[in-house]
Specification:
single chain; 94 residues; mainly beta; OB fold (Dihydrolipoamide Acetyltransferase, E2P); five-stranded mixed barrel; 7 strands; 0% helix; 60% strand
Length: 94
């Protein structure tokens, strides 16, 4: 699958991408309590997308890293498709 193929509401998303940038983490209040979240920009040869990184996921990636997103899902935030890696997905470097 490629970034250009992504649409809101997709599940079982598998992507091989490069991390372009990662924002500074911020604390947010969720229904599970406080959590750290950072926004990342990812790209492949078809385009760019935003990705949310939560808690321990933040330290897994840095700009320039090539990663594979396994079993992710997509949402729509402020009119843009966003990639998420939930509890059933994972991020693999390389």
């Amino acid at each position: 699958m490629k970034i250009a193929d992504l649409k809101p509401g997709m599940s079982r998303v598998n992507l091989k991408v490069t991390v372009v940038e990662v924002s500074r983490p911020r604390l947010v209040n969720t229904r599970f309590g406080l959590a750290k979240v950072a926004d990342a920009v990812i790209e492949d040869d078809t385009g760019r997308a935003k990705m949310s990184l939560w808690n321990e996921q933040i330290s897994l990636v840095s700009p320039g890293d090539e990663i594979t997103i396994e079993n992710g899902y997509t949402t729509q935030f402020r009119g843009e498709v966003q990639v998420n890696v939930g509890r059933y997905g994972r991020i693999v470097k390389g």
